[in-house]
């Protein structure tokens, strides 16, 4: 097929404004990885790319790259280019209904959408609505409170006192990753936590959630819209911070061995199958505490774990995605081969020469982009090997090699 891949952060979604470096490293990594897999499968790939990135000629194996200069230009390009392509795949955050709106646009073109249906995205993107659905279906999930931004501090604190115990998590209802998320340990931190949520979300509501001390993981699944199959348990490296600092998703390892891996798989499959219209690739975030798994989030889109998954899977992950959506065909469960660990690293802004040297390294999935107005950049690097230790050593070598080129 002729496939358009649109990744929102690197593809022009921030045209006319600064691009957040940390999110860019994840977005470009997913874009680069899925484009490479589509190409390996034999598809012809067109991508949209922010002109500030395209002029740097980053490592991207697309057949056609369309530079995006102005705000909202990407939506117009998607509409126009759809006419000469067969299918479209969107990678975008749920924040502000961005993913839902873009998939709705794709559905209106009449071309093949490789995403979850927009109606299903709407069901799971709102974390408050998702929580209600999970509770209704009897899935274990951390206890949550839906609060209003307009509630007074006294009202918020009283609601917390009635329903929850510190420490708790504050987060936006439409957040992605760790944006706007805080670990709140006492009443005195509530005001700052609310301010952080407001800075990341335009929603009139936010969530206060029970904190469960456990292992943060995700499950990568494929689904036909009716049947789902879990193929990987992934460890998440998360910096969970109090309100005066930014929480962050820093990377992960694929796959992750845990005593309740099969229980986590079964739970994630049941959750995905309970939402009609989820199809293709879906991620489910869990917390594993002792011998119990709790559902935290459902991601109706490609997740950063894809970067590691494609290194260890026994099949082409993009091909399986297409087969799940178009043929209703799921992969047979099989063991992954080896381990892949990936990490986001903040760096100084590189020179153009250093950027191009780094872009040639296979261990750097997203090089640190030298964008105007930014003193800092962010790279996403990867290491893999036969075992967990091999992968960690490979990751450390990749980090040293990158820093040596800088110095």
Instruction: Just give the CATH class of the largest domain.
Output: Alpha Beta
Give the tally of β-strands.
Answer: 17
Instruction: Give the biggest beta sheet.
Output: 8 strands, antiparallel
- Roughly how many Å apart are the termini? 44 Å
What is Rg? 20 Å
* Shape type: globular
Count up the domains: 4
Structural class based on helices, strands and sheet pairing: alpha+beta
Question: What letter string, H or E per element, gives the SSE order?
Answer: EHEHEHEHEHHEHEEHEEEEHEEHHEHEEH
CATH architectural arrangement of the largest domain: 3-Layer(aba) Sandwich
From the 3D structure, determine the CATH topology of the largest domain. Answer: Rossmann fold
Q: Give the helix proportion (percent range).
A: 25-40%
Poorly predicted spans? none
| Strands in their spatial order, largest beta sheet | 14-13-10-11-12-15-17-16
What portion of the residues fall into strands of 2 or more residues? 25-35%
Mean pLDDT: 93
Number of helices: 13
Task: Give a brief rundown of this model.
With 407 residues, this protein is of the alpha+beta class. The chain has 13 helices and 17 strands.
């Amino acid at each position: 097929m002729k496939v358009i891949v649109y990744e929102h952060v690197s593809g022009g979604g921030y045209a006319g404004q600064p691009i957040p470096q940390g999110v860019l490293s994840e977005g470009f990594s997913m874009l680069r990885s899925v484009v490479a897999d589509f190409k390996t499968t034999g598809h012809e790939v067109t991508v949209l790319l922010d002109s500030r990135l395209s002029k740097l000629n980053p490592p991207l194996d697309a057949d056609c790259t369309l530079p995006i200069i102005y705000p909202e230009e990407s939506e117009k390009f998607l509409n126009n280019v759809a006419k000469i392509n067969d299918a479209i795949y969107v990678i975008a955050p749920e924040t502000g209904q961005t993913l839902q709106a873009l998939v709705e646009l794709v559905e209106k073109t009449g071309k093949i959408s490789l995403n979850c249906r927009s109606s299903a995205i709407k069901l799971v993107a709102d974390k408050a609505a998702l929580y209600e659905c999970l509770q209704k279906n009897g899935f274990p999930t951390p206890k949550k409170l839906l609060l209003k931004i307009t509630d007074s501090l006294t009202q918020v604190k009283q609601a917390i006192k009635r329903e929850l115990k510190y420490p708790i998590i504050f987060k936006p209802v439409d957040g992605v990753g760790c944006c706007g998320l805080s670990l709140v340990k006492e009443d005195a931190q509530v005001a700052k936590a609310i301010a952080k949520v407001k800075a990341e979300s335009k929603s009139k509501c936010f969530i206060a959630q029970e904190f469960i001390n456990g292992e943060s993981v995700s499950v990568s699944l494929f689904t036909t819209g009716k049947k789902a199959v879990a193929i990987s348990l992934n460890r998440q490296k998360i910096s969970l911070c109090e309100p005066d600092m930014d929480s962050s998703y820093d990377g992960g390892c694929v796959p992750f061995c845990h005593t309740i891996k099969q229980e986590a798989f079964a739970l994630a499959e049941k959750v995905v199958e309970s939402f009609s219209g989820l199809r293709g690739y879906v991620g489910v975030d869990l917390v594993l505490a002792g011998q119990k798994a709790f559902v935290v989030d459902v991601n109706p889109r490609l997740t950063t774990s894809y970067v590691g998954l494609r290194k260890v899977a026994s099949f082409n992950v993009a091909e399986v995605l297409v087969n799940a959506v178009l043929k209703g065909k799921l992969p047979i469960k099989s063991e992954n081969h080896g381990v892949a660990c990936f990490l986001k690293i903040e760096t100084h802004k590189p020179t153009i020469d250093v950027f191009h040297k780094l872009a040639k390294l296979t261990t750097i999935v997203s090089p640190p982009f030298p964008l105007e107005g930014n003193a800092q950049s962010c790279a996403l690097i990867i290491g893999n090997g036969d075992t967990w230790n091999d992968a960690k050593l490979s990751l450390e070598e990749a980090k040293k090699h990158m820093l040596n080129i800088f110095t």
